[in-house]
Specification:
This protein has one domain. 67% of the residues lie in helices and 0% in strands. α2 packs antiparallel against α3 and α4 packs antiparallel against α5. The longest helix is centred in the C-terminal third of the chain and has 16 residues. The protein is mainly α. The protein is built from five helices and no strands.
Length: 79
């Protein structure tokens, strides 16, 4: 699952990445990361998910949080 997420993430369109995860059967990931407002809210959701029992996706979560932070600051994407 981690490899699939790393290959299919989209730093500038987190919603699309989550949609792909849900359509591919990774419903637990999509539910865990469902955006609930602003990008900053999404970052906090990612942090909370990574600090709980979702250890198998923690690397993806932290990478996504960093990408969202860059987008919020207006920095160019790196992926």
């Amino acid at each position: 699952m981690v490899q699939w997420l790393l290959e299919n993430r989209s730093g500038w369109n987190i919603g699309a990445a989550l949609g792909k995860a849900a359509k591919s059967g990774h419903l637990r990931v999509a539910q865990c990361l469902a955006p609930r407002g602003s990008a900053n809210d999404l970052i906090e959701t990612i942090r909370q998910a990574a600090s709980r029992e979702h250890f198998e996706i923690s690397l993806f979560l932290y990478d996504t949080a960093a990408t969202v932070r860059k987008a919020v600051r207006g920095e160019a994407p790196t992926n």
